[in-house]
Every structure is written in C-alpha cells, then in structure tokens.
Amino acid sequence: MVLAEGTLEYIYTAGLLVSFIGMIVIAVWNRREIGRVLRDSGFRRKDLLLAIVPVAVFILILAIVVKPTQLLFFDDAIYQAMGLSLLHTGQAWMCNFGTPNQCFSGQIFHEPIGLSFNIAIGFLLLGVHRMSAYAVQATLAALSVFMTFIVAFALLKDRRSAFLSALVLALLPIILVWAYPTNSDMATLAYSLVSVFMLIVLMKRKNLLSLAAFLFSLSVLLYMKVDAFVYVPILALLYMILYEKGTIKSVSESARSLYDNILNTKLLLLILVFILIAYPTVMFAFYNSSSDGYGYQGTSIQLTCNKTVSYIKANGTINVENFKANICANLSFWANSYTKQQVAQPLYLTILAIVGALLMIAFGKGRIMAALAIWFGVIFLFYTAFYAGSVVYGVDWRFMISLMAPFAILAGTGISDLSKAGEVLASKASKDKRLPMLCGAAISIALGASLFYVLYSNSAYVFIKPSAIQQAGDARFYENFVYNSSHLIPSGCLVYTYDPTLFNINNRTATQMSNIYNSSFFNASKANYPCLVLDKGYWCNTPGNLCTQAEHTYNLTSIANATYTNGFTYGFYRIVP
Questions:
Q1: How many Å apart are CA 189 and CA 400, to the nearest integer?
Q2: Residue 483 pLDDT class (50, 70, 90 cuts)
C-alpha cells in the first residue's frame, strides 16, 4: 500500500496528539492515586516547595549565565521547521519545498515528531523564533529536574535524597550545556522520568487507571526518539526489580492478573487504544531502521582503545565492533577526560555516584540500587554499541543526557547517605541527641555546597560564549547570518538553498538547491515568484556542491553577504536568468 506524500506525517501527529492529551487527562483523572503513592512515601505539601528549589536554581543559572546557542549543525533548524509545519498543517516533516505556512514537498526526518510537537506548542504560545525553541528545551530540562525529585522521593522515601538528587541534575554541566540547543535527548530525559514515575504508581496501586497513565506516558516517550524504544526493556526490568514482593512474584502475579482479566472489556479496550496510538511510532522506527541506516555507511569511527590504529569503518548501526571502538572514550568521560573538547563530566560527581551505590547496599536499599544501575547500564551499553555513540564523536556526547537521571539519583543519595553515616557515628560518639542531627546537616550542607564549586570549576566549558565553541563555528556564523539578514530578501521570493527549513522558520519560501537544475521546476518558479534567490550558504563551502555551478550559470546580484574568518563569503543573491 502506497500512501500519498505527507500522509504518514498526519498519522504520526494523530498518534502523538492522542497520546499526549491522554497522558495529561488520565494523570489529572488519576491525581488522587498519584497523591496517595506520594503520601505513602512520606511526601507532604511542603515538599512541593522543596522540589521547586533545585528547579529555581537551575532556571536562575540558565537565565543569567548560560549563553543560548545551537550546536547541532542544522538539525536544530530542521526540528524547529518541523514544529512550524506541524503547527500550521499538522505534518511534522523536513520540508524540501515550502512556505512558512505550508510544505509542498518533504520527507520523514530521522527522528520521530515528539520534540517538534513540543516546539510547535512553544511556537503557538511564544511566537515563531528560535528563542521559543530555546524556551521549550529549557522547560523540558527544568521538568527533568523536578521529576528527578519526584522519582527519587517515590523510590527512596527520603526528602533529603530527593532534594540532593534534583540539585545534582540541575548542576550537571551536560544538562546546562544542552538545556537550550534543540535536541531530542532532553525531551527523552524529561518524558522517561514521567514514565518511570507512572510505573511506580502502577506498581503501588495496581488498578486500570494507573495502567492507563503508564501506557499513555510510555507512548509519548516513544515518540521522542527512535532510541527511546530502549526504555521498553528498562521499564520491564524496573517493574520486576522494584516489585515489593520480589522479581519472581512480579512475574507470577502479573501473569495471574492478566489471566484473570483476559476478558475484561475495559482492559482489552485500553490495550487496543495503546496499540493504536503507539503503532505509528513503532512503524516509524521500523521504517527508519530498514531504510535509513542512520548514516553509518562509509562512516569512520574512532578506535578509542587503540593508540596505533585511529579509525575503523562502521559496518552497522549497533554492534560489538562499535562497542569495542567506543568503550574507552565512554568510560573515560566519567573521569572528566575531555574538557579540552568541551565535553565535561566532573570526576567528583562520579565518585559520589559510586559512593551512593555502595551506601545504598550498606543501608539495605540494594534493590533500588540495582534498578538504578540497570536503568543507567542498559542505556550506556546501547549508546556505546551505536556507531556514533562515542562522547568524542562530534556533538554526540548529548547521548549521555539519558543516563543522567539515574546517575543524579545515585550521586544525590551518596551525599544523603554520607550525612546519615555521619549521624550514626556521631550518635555513637556522644550522648547529646542534637549532635547527630547537626553533624548530618553539616555534611549535607558542605557536600551540597561543593556541587556549586564543581560547577564553577567547570565554568569554562559550561558558560562558554557561542563564538568560542570550536565545532562548526562557520555553520553557526552562517545560521546567525540567515537570522539577521533573511528579512532583506523580498518576502515573495523563492530561495534556492541546501537548507529550506532554516528559511521557513525565518518567514521565507524556499526549496532545495538541486531544484535549480530541474528545468520544469525552475521555469514554473520564474512564472510564479517575483524573484528567485540563490543562498550561498554553509554547504556551498563543501566539496561537490551545486553553488559554484549555479554561480557560473546565472547572473547574480547581491542582496546581503557576510565573510567568516576562514575567508568564505556567505550571501543571498538574486538570480538573473
């Protein structure tokens, strides 16, 4: 069955829209059960204020110190333009020919529409501009901080651990660096935490409404990124490990419950709805994995464990050979080994996480530690086996974002349990009942304050000016040129460019550069548009581009231009056939 171009995008949008609305509606409907789970964990209303503190700290640092920038070459603009297309037409796709309000010809991008859906909401509320996209990303990051507090509280039943876990996440360099750029990893982190929490509610309440809340949140998570399918086995393992009666009981009782309710109409209907709303993103993942290849063909990846042979050719998306190539870099990352490449992960925090894991076992929280280790470990193994999963592969240290929730909970618990260990020792050393409490508070405050010092010591990599970022300085320069100068292009013109999406979000009509040599398309364009414009952009300074050929074919008059430090001049030129 062959669908008309653009039809799949409507299907994806419908699946996510129902999932998203359903997640919110069911969560509100199930608020009493959710509240009961939190109260059973010791959560009180005043703890909501405590949860807001690390969120406020995060937002304050982000607003005052971190410089918004786009780091992902042109993926940022693609996600944003997909959000623009979704807002106006209900289709989230990479547009190859279209106006700011309508895409005539496009293609499915290599990520699902989840992030673009969030950006579309931002555009609707704040207007179409990359600052709106930055605001969406920052909101998702802040949601991650808040949900880390909630998940840690529900797991550990301890407000001190929950607060410190959220504070660790709020101060992690990788979270602050990637809080603005348009990337699907931050969205995946936020919604994965929502899904984990809904799983905890399901385990505690075991009713149909809690199951619905979990399934709808899982469906939303799967739309954020193809990689999010790794959470399906993770959540299944968390359910088995965290189940109060043990792993074997979790399997046997779940099987028994399913058998007893196999003819329950409401349950069958819920499962059917879940299949229908999740099927589009399953179809998307299958389509991409079977046809896209995610660009690994011909790619050279670094052998980070071999000093004599630097690179190998990738021979698959995910495999053992990729794992062998990436493992040393991905382990060294946790020792803060790549700050010269502006890839920061303080060793001190890694030590706290290891201490936290050990003290969890010592304090009888081994099952929770095992669950966090599996949550962390499965994602770590998955990305290390991915051909572009090395932290030193371009900007792909962002893949580590998904590991930061379990990591932060381990590190936060490490601080909390160290203070509790201090309380125990103080109680044995003195009969004064106030001393243990004072000792524990002093340790918590001292270690909590040290988190700010660690961030300060990494400030050169976190608070860097966009112009000082090594990677793709020319791409960033060109993108800013488009934002600053595209208004000089007459609004009715058609721009021939390698990046139509960038011009769509800057309120200009654009098409792929290759169409300049499609004679029927070009002649129709001359008849339908008052002027045609050549964008001499970033890709025009790469081998084998079409721009040089176009310059020799047509007479060009300059509209605007700007020269980068490497001597290459970017510009917009009116085509005179």
A1: 10
A2: very high
Task: Decide if pLDDT at 1 tops 50.
Answer: no
Tokens read off for 516: 């300049």
* DSSP H or E run through 573: strand 569-576
Computed over every residue of the chain, the mean pLDDT equals 89
Count CB atoms within 10 A of the CB of residue 356.
Answer: 28
Q: How many helices (H) and strands (E) does the chain have?
A: 23, 9
Token pair listed for 464: 């860097």
Q: At what angle are helices 434-457 and 347-362 packed, to 10 degrees?
A: 150
Minimum mean pLDDT range among 271-280, 323-332, 455-464: 455-464
Whether the Cβ atoms of residue 91 and residue 170 lie closer than 8 Å to each other: no
The pair of structure tokens assigned to 65 is 């110190």
Q: Which two tokens stand for residue 484?
A: 């600053």
Residue 2's pLDDT band, with cuts at 50, 70 and 90, is very low
DSSP category for residue 4: P
Encoded tokens for 445? 């405050």
| The total number of residues written for the chain in this structure | 577
Amino acid at 122: G
Please give the Cα distance from 470 to 559 (Å, whole number): 29
Joined together, the tokens standing for residue 246 give: 């043990």
For residues 72 and 181, the answer to whether their CB atoms sit within 8 Å is: yes
- What is d(CA 478, CA 480) in angstroms, rounded to the nearest whole number? 5
Tally Cβ neighbours within 10 Å of residue 335.
12
Strand 532-536 to strand 494-497: parallel, antiparallel, or no bridges (unpaired)?
A: parallel
Measured CA to CA, the distance from residue 168 to residue 180 in angstroms comes to: 18
**What gap in Å lies between CA 473 and CA 538, rounded to an integer?**
11
Q: Which helix (H) or strand (E) holds 511?
A: strand 509-512
CB 574 within 8 A of CB 559: yes
Query: Which conformational region is residue 73 in: left (phi greater than 0), alpha (psi within -120 to 50 degrees), or beta?
Result: left
Contact in structure between 150 and 166 (CB atoms under 8 Å): no
Evaluate if residue 433 carries a pLDDT over 80. no
Which residues contact residue 143 at a Cβ distance below 8 angstroms, ignoring those fewer than 6 apart? Answer: 190, 193
Query: Around Cβ 129, how many Cβ atoms within 10 Å?
Result: 16
- Pairing of the two strands 94-98 and 494-497: unpaired
Q: Residue 270: CB partners within 8 Å, gap ≥ 6?
A: 208, 211, 212, 215
The CA R_g of the chain, rounded to the nearest whole Å, is 26
Instruction: Give the three-class secondary structure for 204.
Output: helix
- Among residues 461, 344, 469, 323, which one has the least CA distance to residue 390? 323
Best CA proximity match to 27, nearest among 293, 214, 250: 214
Q: pLDDT confidence of 287, banded at 50, 70, 90?
A: confident
Contact 94, 496 (CB under 8 A): no
Enter the pTM of the model: 0.92
Cα dist from 119 to 97, 123, 128, whole Å: 21, 6, 9
How far apart are the C-alpha atoms of 494 and 531, rounded to whole Å? Answer: 7
In angstroms, the CA 35 to CA 46 distance is 14
Residue 7 in tokens: 């039809």
- Amino acid letter, 356: G
**Calpha distance 257→327 (Å, rounded):** 41
